[in-house]
Design a protein that fits this description.
single chain, alpha/beta, 5,6-Dimethylbenzimidazole Phosphoribosyltransferase, Chain: A, domain 1, Rossmann fold, 2 domains, six-stranded parallel sheet, 16 helices, 6 strands, 47% helix, 9% strand, binds nicotinate mononucleotide, binds 5,6-dimethylbenzimidazole, glycosyltransferase
Length: 374
């Protein structure tokens, strides 16, 4: 972790100035591409060159973990669904697989903290869904024919119940962050040019809410959502659980490892590492929903310059996501009312990120196209 943190540097302001100057010469009214313009400028700053390389191929790391706080009745879903969905993703039958095939992205599932027997690659009933995948979409830069892969890197079989004791030890947090770093490093070494954050973990919107509250100072009521979908009684209990955990541990946002240990999850910690390694490697990282955003808050607390590599893929319906993205100064690219996780919302933003950069490579200037400027 220390090496990764030390490698994170600010954005290159010269490359950003060059990208802004280039935008001013392209055949379009200034500012007409809205959020995409500042995004492409930021990616030039991240790459340290203008235009920056087309961001791809994309690779999603889906970090899976379970949660002791599940015992408090914060979700209607049984814990074993986490392991079952890991199997489903490995068989190619989950939403993230369909979306990854659409954009030609690689899928890597990382068991960083699932409860129960270690996840295997045995296809479940949904295995047939992957038998004849639709062809990859127009980006096609990834390996659409490649099967999803499993990385077995379990730090422990689920967290402890944060309402009773710290969810993790500091050593467990550091180990989970290292799993995220290793995953990102491996994907980048294998050619990934755009990292996508994904998660799977029944009950993980509860620690996500606690992390967002701890890092932003927001009230639990404003960052706790309905997760997979809960009734009013469960929602009230969930807010009370988040409040109780924060009151018990009083986590200090200046100590990100301590915050993750008190009220975090293994996938949140691993996602923080994944984001940090992307920033260290100068590869953009698409942030998905509230779980990834909570991990991104931890990453930013560890290394503020890591924010330069973060791109908010979408605005999750979970309220903590909006609070976290605002705190990070990120504008979500898509707003589709999604609240699935797995990296699904961020994956849909892959073509948007690629298009933002493609403009800098391919659009004619007023001079070269003979178009009059105003
Ligand atoms: O990404 C999001 O913002 C998001 C919002 C709501 C639910 N989820 C997913 O749903 C699961 C957690 O929901 P819950 O209600 O069990 O806390 C977990 O697997 C997440 O990936 C994800
Ligand atoms: C079925 C199911 C799929 C999911 N994918 C991400 N979180 C999930 C939660 C459930 C319950």
């Amino acid at each position: 972790m220390r090496e990764t943190l030390a490698a994170i540097r600010p954005l290159d302001t010269d490359a950003m100035a060059a990208a802004r100057a280039l935008h001013a010469r392209l055949t379009k009214p200034a500012g007409s591409l809205g959020t995409l313009e500042e995004l492409s400028v930021r990616l030039a700053g991240l790459a340290g060159t203008c235009p920056p390389p087309l961001p791809g191929p994309a690779a999603v790391g889906v970090f899976a973990g379970d949660h002791g706080v599940h015992a408090q009745g914060v979700t209607p879903w049984p814990q074993e669904v986490t392991a079952q969905m890991v199997t489903n993703i490995l068989a190619g039958g989950a939403v993230i697989n369909a979306f990854a095939r659409q954009v030609g992205a690689r899928v890597t599932v990382v068991d960083v903290g699932v409860a129960g027997p270690p996840a295997g690659a045995t296809p479940g009933p949904a295995g047939g869904a992957a038998a004849e995948p639709a062809p990859a979409g127009p980006i096609g830069a990834g390996p659409p024919g490649d099967a999803p892969e499993l990385v077995q890197a379990r730090v422990r079989a689920g967290t402890r119940d944060m309402t009773v004791e710290p969810a993790l030890t500091r050593d467990e947090v550091v180990a989970a962050v290292a799993v995220g770093i290793d995953t990102a490093d491996r994907l980048v070494d294998a050619g990934a040019g755009l990292l996508v954050t994904g998660d799977m973990g029944i009950a993980n919107t509860t620690p996500a809410a606690a992390l967002v509250a701890a890092f932003t100072g927001a009230d639990p009521l404003d960052v706790t959502g309905r997760g997979t979908g809960i009734d009013d009684g469960t929602y009230e209990r969930k807010v009370a659980v988040v409040r109780a955990a924060l009151a018990r541990h009083a986590p200090d946002p200046a100590d990100p490892v301590g915050v993750l240990a008190a009220v975090g999850g293994l996938e949140h910690a691993a996602l923080a590492g994944f984001v940090l390694a992307g920033a260290a490697r100068r590869v953009p990282v698409l942030v998905d929903g509230v779980i990834a955003a909570a991990g991104a808050l931890a990453a930013a607390a560890l290394a503020p310059d890591a924010r330069g590599a973060m791109v908010a893929g979408h605005r999750s319906a979970e309220p903590g996501a909006t609070v976290a993205l605002r705190h990070l100064g990120l504008t979500p690219l898509l707003d589709l009312g999604m609240r699935l996780g797995e990296g699904s919302g961020a994956m849909l933003a892959v073509p948007v990120v690629a298009a933002a950069v493609r403009v800098l490579h391919e659009v004619a200037t007023f001079d070269s196209a003979g178009v009059s400027s105003k």
